[in-house]
Design goal:
187 residues; elongated; 2 domains; mainly alpha
Length: 187
Amino acid sequence: MLAQISPEDKNLNVTTPYYIFKYSIRSEVTRRYYERRIRTFFDFIQFLPSSELEKRCNIFAKKATRNNKWAVVNIIRFLQYEKERVEKGEITAATLSNFVKSIKLYCEMCDATIHWKKITRGLPRPRLTANDRALEIDPEMLEALFNKGLLLYAEDKKEEALTWIDKALIIDPTNQQILDLKAQLQD
């Protein structure tokens, strides 16, 4: 169920891109996070920096639907900057993924046609980062070692995958699932 229209919202134009975006998010907490991420994106591209978020959203939507390439270039510039921050260890891949989700939802709600597969193809995957975090907490967490090896294998990084599977086998040398994956990696 989508968010209810509050009495103060009844006087608003409910067809604006900002309002539709706001309406599409069920949780108030999630909406605040998404709005903060959209604001960060607009600040980065220096889009109407002194204006309120609603105005920025509505004008961005109008501009993005008229000039798709302008929107794509700005989204890629922002995501490339955030990707570099992931590589430097300033933010996690999961944080980058959250920026993508926020911008993608906003663009979908304002009918801006963006080819997200092209844009997100080169971004790091948060799943792998979650395993990395688990291993930072407990370097001998068997499930995280196995999952990291499995994910690397799925990405066709067999040498790296084998390293993690070997670490898992040190902890549990008789685990059949891990042994089976090692056999596949050595084929």
